[in-house]
Automatic annotation (TrEMBL), chain A:
Belongs to the CTAG/PCC1 family. It is found in: Cytoplasm; Nucleus. This is L antigen family member 3. Component of the EKC/KEOPS complex that is required for the formation of a threonylcarbamoyl group on adenosine at position 37 (t(6)A37) in tRNAs that read codons beginning with adenine. The complex is probably involved in the transfer of the threonylcarbamoyl moiety of threonylcarbamoyl-AMP (TC-AMP) to the N6 group of A37. LAGE3 functions as a dimerization module for the complex. The keyword Secreted does not apply. Residues 33-73 have a biased composition (Low complexity).
UniProtKB/TrEMBL annotation, chain B:
This is N(6)-L-threonylcarbamoyladenine synthase. Its cofactor is a divalent metal cation. It is found in: Cytoplasm; Nucleus. Substrate binds at Y130, V131, S132, G133, G134, D162, G177, E181, N266.
Amino acid sequence: MQAPGGSGGGGRGCRDGAEGGAGGPGGPGRPGAPGVWEGAGAEGAAAGEAPQVEGALHSPGRGAEASAEGARPGSRRRLNWFSTSSLMVPFLSFMDAEIARRYLAPGVEALGGAVHREFTVIGSDLVIRLTAENPSLLQISVASLLNQLSVVVQAMQRFVPPYFLKPQPGKGG
Amino acid sequence: MPAVLGFEGSANKIGVGVVRDGKVLANPRRTYVTPPGTGFLPGDTARHHRAVILDLLREALTEAGLTSHDIDCIAYTKGPGMGAPLVSVAIVARTVAQLWNKPLLGVNHCIGHIEMGRLITGATSPTVLYVSGGNTQVIAYSERRYRIFGETIDIAVGNCLDRFARVLKISNDPSPGYNIEQMAKRGKKLVELPYTVKGMDVSFSGILSFIEDVAQRMLATGECTPEDLCFSLQETVFAMLVEITERAMAHCGSQEALIVGGVGCNLRLQEMMETMCQERGAKLFATDERFCIDNGAMIAHAGWEMFQAGHRTPIRDSGITQRYRTDEVEVTWRD
């Protein structure tokens, strides 16, 4: 992943729930560096912008539930809305992704527990799933996560050079 | 001879320090300074810290002449403080600890100040006046805890001074408190301000509200100058602090007083505390701006003490706590 301020780039991502996915600054970056894949809904978003969770109010996705209580005519229905977003961050190897997962995952509860984060390593990809009570919280938490990810990757790049300077066949590294 | 690397970033100062066996090997620091009339916000402060922390880490290792292999433990400020800045520093500490395969220690910021003050001054068991932009406490050690004898019931004394500085649009460079101190030296008139001591505790929100309310009027009518207001505010709030410290010393029978925290750099506060200590036959200890103001070495040294005593912070517990009380920590490294 490039340091903040690097050029943006498109890519694929996996999204659940709210439209608009999540993207963030940086693209695949230079050879050998991990990249951030933007959610498809963020295509066209300028690099460095906070991801726009569009459509969340219109399409609540799987997380929406309608309470059965108060469903009588004239009464107010209570809906529990959840906004979710996923990021897939490719690394060079399973070990790199696992290390990043351990750095990011533990002990940091965002926004008083109103945001839930799940970290999974699939192959050499770190998949991060965020679930929030509303789109605004989701937006804040995605931006916060990307900032943390940026710092973690920069620390890995600066203090463990062999991870990112290994010559890669065909990549001119 | 373990060497501990410490990260501090609970407010607008970010520092990385290296301490080995009570010796400070490195202590670089950066301060996030905002324009006059404004304060520092969590998000902006965290952004500043993220931008400089890795450079500071490299600088600390170079200054100490050490590599990652020479470091035995990574310490970081677990709290109290501002959430976003704390998180941005904790992330790096956690990352580095895992990259280098070193144990991690979450340190209480207040205890960092106390332990560094004891190390630098040689005070053995003082009554501690901890005064900064975020904290105001009178603390004494008893039975494995740093007990809080008195504290502010609302805002910290440094916060009171900083917010008053905004009213007068005093520069934040190098710090609003320092600039207030310099202006106060030129003050000639003592303006009567609310003096609020409640037993062992103090309150500063009332004096701040009052002075914010009257400052513009008094300056406009020429009743006083900005220097007079700075002087009057300092005299009033510092007298309150001296009173509660003396009360704690009398309660404990203490013959030593130690001032720590950023406001502890203020020479007028030290002078007033010295007068009180002399009257009691006690001794005053204070440090200079290198260690009074938030710095990485104080976290490294507190971490060193904790490391020697066998403390460790598991990775799953390596978060931050914005409200982390001084007396929550079991001080197992002291008798």
